[in-house]
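Entry for the shared binder. Reason: the reviewer on the internal report wants the predicted structure included alongside the sequence.
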Amino acid sequence: MKSESLRQMIPKELWQQFLARMKTEDTIQVLHRLFDYVTKVLANRTDEIKADDGRAISFFHEQREFLTINVTRKDLRIYVHPKAGVYFDPKAKFAVEKFRFWETSYHKASGKYRALSFWISEKEYLPAAKKIIDMIP
């Protein structure tokens, strides 16, 4: 799907709900930049985008969620689901505010994790967030 078509899946009213939840202008800008980046680089992978009452933006491929941006009052919590197809080295470090591998996503055969959550709220963490997103095939 084209990037512009994906961006239009989130109506203006939902953007207003997201923005009303967030406390800082910096985090609002981070949300816009991250959303634009995801819709650009994962356009071919994304079949549908759903938003949950100003709380989350979820990206789907073949009717399965593979990436979620959870909007909280103070930051963004991004979930990279196993459906994303990424294998994360357990020794990997990411220059985001915080990250956590999902213990339940550990793949014994490869010795790697298939899912993680990470948190960002400031522009300085966008490059690291983009690197994680770039790992999604």
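Summary line for the report: The longest helix spans residues 25-41.
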